[in-house]
Amino acid sequence: MFIAMNRFRVAPGSEAAFETLWRSRDSHLQGVPGFVEFHLLKGPAREDHVLYASHSVWRSRADFEAWTRSEAFRMAHRHAGTTRPLYLGPPEFEGFESVQTLVQQAAG
């Protein structure tokens, strides 16, 4: 499993617009080989920003990297530069390989 995250420092007062932008966009992820799930996470508020993270789970790093070279990726990010006023600086990418996974056991 591979987890791809981008951290965004959203300007105070821009949280609703940032969330609306993410909720209303077409991610083009459905049907992409290796895509498992996506989450938009809201973190702590600081004096100058509110922390958000986009968090996508992939079957493998290779699947994620293939997506970044795909037409679906280009379509999902075609308006990426137009949201700068909502957040401070560029997003910060972090990629993680899973080394352990625990799942809830079914009650039996």
From TrEMBL:
InterPro entries: ABM_dom, Dimeric_a/b-barrel, Heme-degrading_MO. Residues 2-96 form the ABM domain. PROSITE patterns: ABM. It comes from the Bacteria. GO terms for molecular function: monooxygenase activity. The keyword Oxidoreductase applies. Keywords: Monooxygenase, Oxidoreductase. PANTHER family: SIGNAL TRANSDUCTION PROTEIN TRAP (PTHR34474:SF2). This is Antibiotic biosynthesis monooxygenase.
